[in-house]
Each structure stands twice: as C-alpha cells, then as structure tokens.
Design brief:
By secondary structure, the protein is of the alpha/beta class. It folds into three domains: 130 residues, HUPs (Rossmann fold); 139 residues, Argininosuccinate synthetase, chain A, domain 2 (Alpha-Beta Complex); 30 residues, no CATH class. The chain has twelve helices and 14 strands. A five-stranded parallel β-sheet has the order 3-2-1-4-5, with helices on both faces. Helix 3 crosses helix 7 and helix 4 packs across helix 5. The longest helix is centred in the last third of the chain and has 20 residues. It is elongated and about 85 Å long. The mean pLDDT is 94.
C-alpha cells in the first residue's frame, strides 16, 4: 500500500468521494490530489474546494470543461447519430472519456503515480474510467475503493465520517431517493422506486422538463443551423457548442421534450432501469438526421446507419479512446463535409417534428423528384430494365423450383 505516494481523485465533493479522500489517506498513506469537473451538471462546483481543504488536500483542481465536453465529445457523437439499444442517447457514457483524460493529465502534471474514482463495482463507469485511463497512460495505477473497502451503504459511510472527523453537509428537506448524474447532455435517475421496472416514477422526480400534458398549448418553432454536421446557430444566432446545449435544454424542456424510461443492458452483465431527460440531445438528433436526409448520398447514409450501433456500443462500453472508435470517427467526420444548412422544427407537448429543411449542398433535385412534368429530366422507361435486372436472380431460382416462402 505504501508504494502509492500521490493519487489523483475524481472528486465531486459529495459523501462518497469525501470518504474516499480520507480512506486513501489512511489506507495508502498517500497524498491526495482532487479533480472536480464542471461539465454542465447545473450545480456549483466551487464548494468542493473548501470541502477538499477541510480534508487536508493541498492540490485542488476545479475546471470548467463545458465547451470542451460539448465540442469534442457530444458533437462528434451526434455526427454519428449514436443511440444505444435504440433509445439511450449516451449522456453519462460520453462524459467519462473526458474525465478520464483530465485525470491522467493531472496525474502527469502533479507527478502522481495513481488515479482513483468513486464508481461502484456494479456499474459501467468503472469500466469507462479505467479503459480510458489505461489507453492514455498505460502504466497508471487505478484505485477503485468500492472494489476494496467494506463500506456498503450510506449508513456505513456516515459512520466512517463520524469516526474519522469528516464534515458532512446534511441537506435540509426531503432527500431525493434517486442516484442522479447530470451534465450538459442529460440528467439520469436510478435506484429508489425505479428498481421495480413496472413502477411509474412520480412527476416531481423530473428536474429539466415539464410533463408533456402540462406543456404550452401553443407549439414552439426553432431553426437550427448546421455546418459540417454540427449545430452552429439557433434561430439565426451563432452559438458555441455548450451554449447550444444550454439553450436547447431550456427550450425543449419547457415543451416537455426529452423524457425516457429505459431498461438497458449494462456492460458488466446486468439489466438496469433508469430514467433520463435529454431535451437538447433529442432535438439535435432529430434535426441532424433531417439535414443529412438532404445532403448525404444514399449509400453513405445507409452505411452510416449500419455503423452507428457499433459506434454507440463503443461509447457505451468505454472504448472512446480505442483505435476502432477513432477509425469510425474519421469515416463519420469525412461524411459530414456537406452536412450544412438549416432545419426548422416544431416542439409541442413532448414531441419534436421536422417541418422544414434547406441547404445549399442539397442533393434533392425538384426537377427529377416532381410528380408533375419533369421535361425529360428522368426517363421512366429506364425503370423497366432496372427492375428486370434486379429480379433476375429470383426468376432463376423460381425456374429451378426453389421455394422462397
């Protein structure tokens, strides 16, 4: 244990990670460096500084990573239209590679020989943090307290705090029964009553969106401007990636957009039920597919759709820093050079509807697509040979007496 001299801890300032600070100090007799990231969770991160100081931490890193998170992680993922298991927009998954990257960077900067995190041994996050860390710093040592200690409940954590003089801020009022994770892309809820997959959560669980039935009776129209597959403006106003996310979360949430109740398959093998609010992501995905429908070649679009589940799985399971994700990203990014233009959407009581799209790089040719006189732009007689050639193999099989049904 004494071989660890300095460890960088992903520190939230909450109960779990505050206990981890003291546990590392006592168990490993090491210096602890804390790292707290603001990735848009909507809570003040500066109080973590004072909490860390009270625990004897001398090197404290608190960083605003919202723009980097949106620009270098969320937006590249949305170029791929990534969805895990048909529904989940990967809000927690995509935040972990950035945190892992900064953990190992700070470890190098401070001369630390280990990193630590507060992810449990039952979840996906331990895998995501550690795969990222090993990919970026192969020799790093990872300390995962939840896999080592015997503190298995909130009560045992509080008892540890009392025994080791760890200050605990007891929040007044009703404590949320859910385990929550938030960033610019989403907020998630797990635990509590949600552990019964048939149980419907209370309305007051949701934090970012109104109930669709309580949303305004008048629809909200918005226009998203795209360049290179990324949203660069809302209603004609240029915005940074993080600003786009913040604004759309507010507008879409106010219209009841972005709620999801899901049972997913965790990488570690179990099924887990969670609820998610992803207002901005829901709107961006819908709009991105709309602008791609105008600007992407058919076979490129279809190939992207075939690759997407693999890409989404790589993000979900923690392989953001893998060579295969980089390979897929290069192909996806190359496809986005003409994904430029404007998409108009209608938000109404939980729904997102595309009502218009336009682009100077559009492949939609009205002279060919028209149901009216196309003035010779398309020779309908060509379709006969096209159909006969594509039917040839089936006709041969039928003549040979093969049953196809």
């Amino acid at each position: 244990m004494s071989s660890v001299k300095k460890v960088v801890l992903a520190y939230s300032g909450g109960l779990d990670t505050s206990v981890i600070v003291r546990w590392l100090q006592e168990k490993y007799q090491c210096e602890v460096v804390t790292f707290t990231a603001d990735i848009g969770q909507g809570e003040e991160v500066e109080p973590a500084r004072e909490k860390a100081k009270l625990l004897g931490v001398k090197e404290i890193h608190i960083e605003d990573l919202r723009e980097e998170f949106a620009r270098d992680y969320v937006f590249p993922m949305f170029r791929a239209n990534a969805i895990y298991e048909g529904e989940y927009l990967l809000g927690t998954s995509i935040a972990r590679p950035l945190i892992a990257k900064r953990l190992v960077e700070i470890a190098r900067e401070t001369g630390a020989d280990a990193i630590s995190h507060g992810a449990t041994g039952k979840g996906n996050d331990q895998v995501r943090f550690e795969l990222g860390a090993y990919a970026l710093m192969p020799g790093v040592r990872v300390i995962a307290p939840w896999r080592e200690w015997d503190l298995t409940s909130r009560e045992t954590l509080l008892a540890y705090c009392e025994k080791h003089d760890i200050p605990v801020e007891m929040k007044r009022g009703k404590k949320s029964p859910y385990s929550m994770d938030a960033n610019l892309l989403h907020i998630s809820y797990e635990g509590g009553g949600l552990e019964d997959p048939y149980w419907e959560p209370e309305e007051d669980m949701w934090r970012w969106s109104v109930a669709p039935e309580a949303a305004p009776d008048k629809p909200t129209y918005i226009e998203l401007g795209f360049r290179g597959g990324d949203v660069v403006s809302v209603d004609g106003q240029a915005m940074s990636p993080a600003s786009v996310m913040i604004h759309l979360n507010q507008v879409a949430g106010a219209n009841g957009v972005g709620r999801l109740d899901l049972v997913e398959n965790r990488y570690v093998g179990m099924k887990s039920r969670g609820c998610y609010e992803t207002p901005a992501g829901t709107v961006i995905l819908k709009a991105h597919r709309a602008i791609e429908s105008l600007t992407l070649d058919r076979e490129v679009a279809h190939l992207k759709d075939e690759l997407m589940p693999r890409y989404a799985s790589l993000v979900y399971t923690g392989y953001w820093w893998s060579p295969e994700r980089h390979m897929l990203q290069a192909a996806i990014d190359q496809s986005q050079q003409y994904v430029n233009g404007t998409v108009r959407l209608k938000l109404y009581k939980g729904s997102v509807q595309v009502v218009g799209r336009k682009s100077d790089d559009s492949l939609f040719d009205p002279h060919i697509a028209t149901f009216e006189d196309d003035r010779g732009a398309y020779n309908q007689k060509d379709a006969e040979g096209f159909i006969r050639l594509n039917a040839l193999r089936m006709r041969i099989a039928a003549k040979a007496g093969r049953k196809l049904g």
